[in-house]
Amino acid sequence: MDRRKFIKVGGAITALSAISPMVISQNEIIKPYDNPFLAATTIKTIRDRIKPITAEERLLRLEQARKLMSENNLDAIFMEGGTSLNYFTGANWGRSERLFAMLLPQKGEPIFIAPKFEESRAMEQTNKSKLFCWEEDESPYELIKTILKENNLLTATIGIEETTRYFVTENIQKTIPTLQIKSATVVTAGCRAIKSAHEIELMQIANDITAEVFKAAVRQLKEGMGESEFGKIVSQLFNEFGTPGGALVLFGEASAHPHGLVKETKLKPNDIVLIDGGCAVEGYDSDITRTTVFGKPTDKMNKLWNIVRKAQDEGLKTAKPGVPAESVDAAARKIITDNGFGTRYKYFTHRLGHGIGMDGHEWYYLVGGNKRLLQTGNMFSNEPGIYILGEFGIRLEDEMLITENGAKLLLPQAQSLEIIF
User: What is the pTM of this model?
Assistant: First the structure.
């Protein structure tokens, strides 16, 4: 499973816990334990810390959204089923050609639009919210027009959530040309990019599970093993915790390609092993990378690992509230450049980090050109790397929380090529 796919699938599965606690439940009975690489007590101790997002928390999120709408002159925001809808309401709905969506007025309660034949399922998901349904031979966009007219919003300024599909936005604009349509990202990202104490705790749990899984997984490396075989071991270990997860696994020369190749690589003595993955807890993701060696590292491997670790340290030291995002990337990149590994993206080929939360990659990005100032409560990956084509690559990745006093990582940093935590 590749790194983007496992995050997408993991987020989709855990989001269902808002409907029924099928993924993780504090009171769920732990199955008989038979894995010699993980302690049953460790699994139970971590799982017992998990507390779902409450209805009260979602109401606070809606209030914050309304506040941001007011500050940014948006009369309402519109979103289809997806991560943002789940964040604000707990509703989970897969997208199809049939429109299911929410309109959140700046003043008033959420309004849902759903196919009529799905009314019972929609009612189950939307609880006591206003729900309007359209029949198969009717236009959902005409229904939206009627709703807006009844709420005096036909000439309103509406923010569209950024992942809303183009044909939906196009049909809204064609049906209601009096609307002014803008992006709702200032609201959705404005809310989701600032993590609450509970969100941070769920992400901490996801990180703690990932650390335990990685430590158990590397003990099962063996000569001749394929990357996909080891990836299955990682996924199975996540399953022991009841959390959907997986990892991108790269052996030897394949590690020089940040997201790998299609070709399968078999593990040989003294090969680099790069593991990049995580899991989702109540919809909140972890994303961790550790690079180790199957055998004895060369001097060059150790040298590059130490440079990458120093770059991660520099990014951590630089990140604090009020600092432009690009400055954090630049600080880490300078360490790699100053140690002789090219300028710009020659060997450190990607940005330093991405936002993370309910999506594996979300707002905002630690990258050159992003002058946005970091804020308390932002969560980023901090993942410098050096990649030497034809030889190997080194990447270290941890989740980094911006606090009032600076930045901190959610996990202990890697200690060496041979000690991953």
Answer: 0.90
